[in-house]
Amino acid sequence: MEMGHDIRAVLSADAIFADWAARANISVVANIEELSTLLAIAPVEWNFFRR
Asked: Can you say whether the dihedral through the CA atoms of 8, 11, 14, 15 is positive or negative?
């Protein structure tokens, strides 16, 4: 975000990260189905995944 990137949504099992996202006005989705629905409505250029 500091470099001008727009983060549209976060899917995370980490409660601290999800809380940060919510406080930053970033949508927090609960599961992959929600994320898939969101991406169908508003496609993105980049997806980042971490296991």
From this structure: positive
